[in-house]
Specification:
By secondary structure, the protein is mainly beta. The protein is built from four helices and 29 strands. Strand 25 and strand 26 form a beta hairpin.
Length: about 375
């Protein structure tokens, strides 16, 4: 009987242990980490009972960066496989768990606290070292631009360092500006030309080194009226270029001064050459009277009753309402036409040529914003 009771109690005891919910505990050892120092340590084996892990062990190294820098992390182990992870509570650094042995590099900003956790039983060696800053390895070029352009360059180091330390500047922002971004180990330079001339785009890597691009904006636009004796737009940063005209019957240009004489309406290209670089100014010359006649003819073809079309006023001048980057010669026609009920409706339209010499007519422009406004006799455009 006693033997039977003993067996029952033993069975109940074992059954009770098995049925008790099990929660694994974590035993953590904390260390302060010093950059450049090798740490050799051993993570104890986990405590198990009946094949269940009751307590796991890990080592946590804490350090703070005194300056922003690339760092290298190397963790080697002996025997059993181990894992490690780097993370920060106040910065977006969190590596996916790495298996040993492994070696990685990353960029860490200053004044942040980082923890590096080694887990898995066994002996390991850990070393965190400061690495050299990123360095641009590509060379600059001379670029001739007529439109936006993307240029790539290479750098050594980490992507995060480049994202935080790349900067770009232009010596002549009027000619071109640029922005820089990062993709992998390539820098992406986006150059946006604005005006004819020469500028230097400098890409700098955190003060360690830089790369320079000589950029020539080689194509621009200009709008002038017949009879103009203005000077062609001079390329920025270019001294004493030699000028020439592609169509002297439309407009002549002085070889040294760049002063023009616009003789008739049409398209002409003025070229300012300096050394091997040619800066082209695609120019539209507007004949106000011919533009007015074309606009009047178009209006007449579209009104309800052409025979009753009446022109009150005609104005000529320059406008920046069409494109704030250019003063464009325009003709404004103030006219009246009858609607379907026979009532006279008064309107104003503005006519102008675009950069390919196509005429446009638009409503709703204010004649008060016309620069150098002068009147044209209505009979001149109605002939």
């Amino acid at each position: 009987m006693k033997k039977f009771v003993s067996i029952v109690l033993t069975f109940a005891f074992v059954l009770g242990i098995i049925c008790i919910p099990v929660t694994a505990n974590a035993a953590v050892k904390n260390f302060n980490l010093e950059l450049g120092k090798t740490y050799t340590n051993t993570v104890d084996k986990p405590v198990t009972m009946y094949g269940i892990v009751m307590e796991s062990h890990s080592h946590v190294y804490t350090f703070t960066m005194n300056k922003s820098s690339n760092i290298g992390i190397a963790v080697a182990s002996e025997g059993e496989s181990q894992n490690w992870q780097l993370k920060s509570t106040d910065y977006s650094v969190r590596f996916a768990t790495q298996s040993t042995p492994s070696s990685v590099s990353c960029y860490l900003p200053k004044n942040k606290t980082y923890t590096l956790t080694v887990s898995g039983a066994g002996k390991y060696a850990l070393k965190v070292t400061e690495l050299a800053p990123d360095k641009i390895t590509s060379k600059g070029n001379t670029l001739k631009l007529t439109a936006k352009k993307t240029v790539s360059f290479n750098f050594s180091g980490t992507t995060d360092y480049a994202k935080n330390n790349l900067s770009v500047s232009s010596s002549k922002p009027k000619v071109a500006t640029a922005s820089v971004s990062v993709s992998g180990n390539k820098g992406i330079l986006n150059i946006d030309p604005h005006y004819i001339g020469k500028t230097t785009i400098t890409v700098k890597m955190g003060g360690s080194n830089s790369i320079k691009y000589t950029v020539h904006g080689v194509q621009g636009y200009w709008f002038v009226a017949k009879g103009s004796k203005a000077k062609a737009p001079k390329p920025v940063g270019v001294k004493k270029p030699k000028w020439k005209s592609s169509k002297k019957k439309i407009a002549k240009i002085n070889k040294k001064t760049g002063k023009i004489k616009a003789k008739k309406g049409g398209r002409v290209t003025f070229t300012a050459k300096k050394g091997k670089i040619s800066y082209k100014i695609k120019t539209v010359v507007t004949d106000y009277i011919k533009l007015g006649k074309k606009a009047y003819k178009k209006i007449k073809s579209e009104v309800n009753n052409p025979d009753k079309l009446k022109v009150y006023n005609v104005y000529k001048g320059y406008s920046k309402q069409i494109d704030r980057n250019y003063k464009i010669p325009v003709v404004v026609i103030d006219f009246g036409s009858t609607n379907s009920n026979g009532a006279m409706i008064r309107s104003k339209v503005m006519a102008y040529y675009d950069d390919v010499y196509e005429m446009h007519i638009a409503n709703g422009w204010s004649i008060d914003n016309i620069i150098g406004r002068k009147s044209i006799k209505p009979r001149k455009i109605k002939k």
